[in-house]
Design a protein that fits this description.
The chain has 13 helices and no strands. With about 475 residues, it is mostly helical. The chain is flat, with a radius of gyration of 40 Å. The two termini are about 70 Å apart. The model is unreliable at about 1-10, about 15-40 and about 120-145 (pLDDT under 50).
C-alpha cells in the first residue's frame, strides 16, 4: 500500500510540475500567441493537452481509491465470510471441481481451492493492455511557427505523461495481483482445512440451479386440447411458420368501370407529366448554383423558378397522384361504383388549369410574396381548392352509397385528408393576421400541416387498403 501511495504521489507531483512549467512558459513573450489571429489552434492545443493531463490524474486517482476501498472492505471480513462470498459466486464447473477434489487428498483440494480463488482474482484486477495513441497534430502544421513550436514541446511531454501513467498503473496492477495471490493462498488453506459437509447440500442445490435450462415448450404444453363445454372453435394442431402468412383464396372483386379506369390513368398520367416538369426545373436550378450566369432572362431567374419547382411537385404531381389513387381505392373498398365520373373529370381539369396558370404567373413575377409553398395568388389556389372540393364531395357520396355495413378505415383517412388540406389552405390565404408574427405562425402551420394532414393521411388510407390486399389477409385490427 505504501508503494501504491508513493507511486501516486510521484505521478501527481510530476504532473503538477509539468503544469507549472507550461503555465510559466505561457507568460513568456516568445511563447505568446495572438488569440484573435489563431484562436482555434491555440484553444484546441490547450484543451487537448490539459484534457489529457486531467484525464490521466483522474483515472489513476479513481483506480487507486477503488483498490484501496476494496482492500479495506475485505480486511474487515472474517475468513468464513470471505469463503461464503466467493462460494456464492462460483460457476457450475467450479463447484463440480471443488466437490470432486474435496473428497480426495488434502493437497489436491488445496490446489483446487487455490485454482478457484485465482480464477476470481481476474475480476478484481483492472489491467489495461491498450493505450490510446498520442493525438496527432497534423492538421495544425498549416499554422505559423509558434504553433509548430508548441506541438514539438507538447509531444514529448504527452509521451512522458503516458509513460508515467502506464508505470503507475502497472504498479497498481502488480500490487493488486500480489495481494490477491496472498489472499487466495490464505483462503485456499482455510477451505482445505474446513469441513464442507454442512455446505455440500447447498453447493449441490446451487449447481443444480446453475445447470437448469428451459425445455422451450413451457408455453405450448404437451396436453391434447379437450373442449368439453364447446367454448373453442377451429382447434388445430397444425402450427405453420408464423413468419410467412398463409394466403387465402382471393375474393371476387367488382369489375372496374372502363370509364373510371380511363379517369384514373389520366390522373396518374398528368401527375407523371408534372413530376418530369418539376424535376427538370429543379435540375436547371441545380445548374444555376455552379453557373449563375447561364441565362439573363427574368422569367428563368432563380427566385422565380424555385417556387415553380416546389409547387409543381407539391401541389401538382403529388396531389394529382394521390387523387388518382383515391378514385381507385374509395369505390373499391365501398364495393360500389363512383358517384360521378363527370365530377372526377372536372376536378382533374381544375387542378391542372390552376397549376399551369400558377406556374406562368410566378414566372412572370406575379406571386403571393414570401410565403413558401403558397406563392400562387389566391384566385389560382381557389380554383385548385375547387378541384379538391369536387373530389371529396364525390368520395363522400360514393361512401354513402356503399354496399358494406361499415366504412372501411381507408375511406376515413382519405376523406379526412381532403377536409384537413382545405382548412389549411383557407387559413393560409385569409387576409386576417397576415403580418408580423401572425404571418410566421400561419406559414409554419401551413407548411407542416400540408405535409402531415395531406400527404400522411392520404397515404395511410392507401396503405390500409393495399397492404392487406397484397398480403391477401384482412386488416389485423380496426
Amino acid at each position: 500500500m505504501i508503494r501504491l501511495l508513493s507511486a501516486k504521489k510521484k505521478l501527481l507531483s510530476t504532473l503538477s510540475l509539468l503544469a507549472i512549467a507550461i503555465s510559466a512558459n505561457a507568460q513568456n513573450e516568445s511563447f505568446n500567441l495572438n488569440l484573435n489571429k489563431y484562436p482555434v489552434g491555440f484553444i484546441f492545443l490547450a484543451i487537448l493537452f490539459y484534457g489529457i493531463l486531467i484525464t490521466a490524474v483522474i483515472s489513476l486517482s479513481y483506480n487507486s481509491k477503488e483498490l484501496i476501498k476494496n482492500f479495506n472492505r475485505q480486511k474487515k471480513l472474517k475468513p468464513e465470510e470471505e469463503v461464503n462470498y466467493y462460494i456464492k459466486n462460483l460457476t457450475s464447473s467450479e463447484i463440480e471441481v471443488l466437490l470432486k477434489n474435496k473428497s480426495g487428498k488434502k493437497g489436491a483440494a488445496k490446489k483446487t481451492a487455490l485454482m478457484l480463488m485465482m480464477s476470481l482474482i481476474s475480476a478484481a484486477t483492472f489491467a489495461q493492455d491498450k493505450v490510446g495513441g498520442v493525438p496527432t497534430a497534423k492538421a495544425l502544421f498549416n499554422q505559423p511557427g509558434i504553433i509548430i513550436t508548441l506541438i514539438l514541446i507538447m509531444i514529448p511531454i504527452l509521451v512522458l505523461v503516458i509513460i508515467i501513467v502506464l508505470r503507475a498503473n502497472a504498479t497498481l496492477v502488480q500490487y493488486s495481483e500480489n495481494e490477491n495471490i496472498k489472499k487466495a493462498k490464505k483462503l485456499a488453506g482455510y477451505i482445505d482445512e474446513m469441513d464442507i459437509t454442512d455446505t455440500e447440500e447447498e453447493l449441490i442445490k446451487r449447481k443444480t440451479a446453475l445447470d437448469y435450462q428451459l425445455k422451450q415448450n413451457e408455453l405450448s404444453g404437451n396436453i391434447t386440447p379437450n373442449d368439453e363445454k364447446g367454448l373453442l372453435n377451429n382447434i388445430s394442431n397444425d402450427h405453420s411458420i408464423h413468419l410467412f402468412a398463409t394466403k387465402t383464396n382471393p375474393i371476387k372483386r367488382p369489375k372496374i368501370d372502363p370509364e373510371l379506369s380511363k379517369l384514373i390513368l389520366w390522373y396518374l398520367g398528368t401527375a407523371i407529366a408534372w413530376l418530369v416538369f418539376g424535376t427538370t426545373v429543379g435540375e436547371y436550378l441545380g445548374i444555376k448554383f455552379v453557373a449563375p450566369d447561364s441565362d439573363h432572362i427574368s422569367w428563368l431567374s432563380f427566385g422565380r423558378l424555385r417556387p415553380v419547382h416546389t409547387n409543381a411537385v407539391f401541389w401538382a404531381w403529388a396531389t394529382l397522384g394521390m387523387m388518382g389513387i383515391g378514385y381507385y381505392v374509395v369505390p373499391t373498398v365501398s364495393n360500389t361504383p363512383l358517384h360521378s365520373i363527370k365530377k372526377g373529370w372536372q376536378a382533374l381539369k381544375l387542378v391542372n388549369v390552376a397549376m399551369i396558370v400558377g406556374t406562368v404567373t410566378v414566372m412572370a413575377g406575379i406571386n403571393n410574396g414570401g410565403g413558401e409553398y403558397r406563392e400562387f395568388v389566391w384566385p389560382i389556389m381557389a380554383v385548385w381548392a375547387m378541384g379538391l372540393i369536387l373530389t371529396v364531395y364525390n368520395f363522400i357520396k360514393t361512401i354513402a352509397n356503399r354496399k358494406t355495413k361499415e366504412v372501411y378505415i381507408s375511406n376515413w383517412y382519405i376523406v379526412a385528408a381532403y377536409i384537413f388540406i382545405l382548412i389549411v389552405a383557407i387559413l393560409a390565404y385569409l387576409p386576417m393576421g397576415q403580418d408580423g408574427i401572425g404571418e410566421t405562425i400561419l406559414q409554419g402551420y401551413y407548411m407542416h400541416q400540408a405535409v402531415g394532414m395531406w400527404f400522411m393521411f392520404s397515404n395511410l388510407g392507401f396503405l390500409y387498403y393495399f397492404l392487406p390486399q397484397q398480403l391477401n389477409k384482412p386488416i389485423y385490427s380496426y
